[in-house]
Amino acid sequence: MGVLVRLEPEQVAVHWALIKNAVLASLPPWTFVKQSKEEIAASIYHAMLRRQMDVWFYPNGVIPPKHVLVTCEIYDPYTETKSLCVYANYSVPAFVQGEKEQSPLITMGEWVRGLKELERYGRGLECQQVIAYMEDERLRELMKRLGFEEQYCFTKVL
Question: For residue 93, what are the contacts with CB-CB under 8 A and spacing of at least 6?
Answer without folding.
Answer: 100, 101, 102, 103
